[in-house]
Amino acid sequence: MIDLNQVSKHYGSTTALHPLDLHIAPGQTMVLIGPSGCGKSTLLRLMIGLIQPDSGTVQFEGEVIGSHNIEALRHRMGYVIQEGGLFPHLTAHDNITLVARHLGWEKEQTEGRVQKLATLVQLPADRLSSFPTQLSGGQRQRVSLMRALMLDPAVLLLDEPLGALDPMIRADLQDELSDIFKRLGKTVVFVTHDLAEAGFFADSVILMREGRVVQAGPFQTLLEEPAEDFVTEFIRAQRHIHAGISVRVDE
Description:
This protein is of the alpha/beta class. The chain has helices at 40-47, 70-74, 92-102, 107-121, 137-149, 167-184, 195-201, 219-224, 229-237, and strands at residues 2-11, 14-24, 29-33, 55-60, 63-64, 77-81, 155-159, 187-192, 204-209, 212-217, 241-242, 245-246. It is built from 9 helices and 12 strands. A 6-stranded mixed beta sheet has the order 6-7-8-3-9-10, sandwiched between helices. Strands 2-1-4-5 form a 4-stranded antiparallel beta sheet, covered by helices on one side. Helix 3 (92-102) runs parallel beside helix 5 (137-149) and helix 4 (107-121) crosses helix 5. The relative contact order is 0.17.
C-alpha cells in the first residue's frame, strides 16, 4: 500500500528523518508513536506529499509520489489533523463536500455520500449547517473525518486527531473510530503520543526517536520485549490505565 525507501528529511542543519524504510500493508492500522519532535508527523506529511523527501522515494500503491501525480494520488488518501483543520468560513457541509464540488460531483451523488457518512460517524443532520465555531470538539473531529472519507479513499492518515479533546469525549471517539476502521476495512496510519491509544488501535506500532525507528512490531512485543533502553524508558514514562489498557513495566 505505502512504501518508504531510504527516505530522509532535513530542515537546514536539523535532521527530521534519518534514512529509513517502511512498509504499510493494505488493511493494516499502523500507529506512529514517540516523543515530540521524533519525526512521526513528518513521516505522515511525506506519505501524503505535503513535503518531499531529500532522499529516497515514497510509493503509494506502487506509484512513486511526485509533482506529476500528487493531486490525483491525494484524492485516494484521507487526511485528518489535530482539531480537524476545518475552514472557519464554511459550514460543516461545505467543509465535507469541498473537494467533491471541486471535482464536479453531481448534487445527488454528493448529498447521498454526506448522509451516509453522517450516519457512519453519528453526526446529527442539523449540525451540517453549522460553522466550526458552533460545533463541539468531538463534532468538529467527526466533520473532519467525514471530509477525509468523502472521496472513499484507500488509506486514512490521522495526525493526533484526538489529542486536544476532553478525556471522556476522547474515549468515546476512540471506540467509534475503532468501530469505523473495522467496518470500512481501510488502511490506517495513526499518529499519537499516547502509548495506551496506540495499543487500542494498532495492528503494528512504530516507536520513533530523533528521526529514527527504534522499534517496530506488535504492541505487546513493544511492552514485553523492548529493543533498547529508550523503549523501556518511554513505556515507564506513560504507565497508566487508559482506554482499558494497563501499561506497566516490572522493575
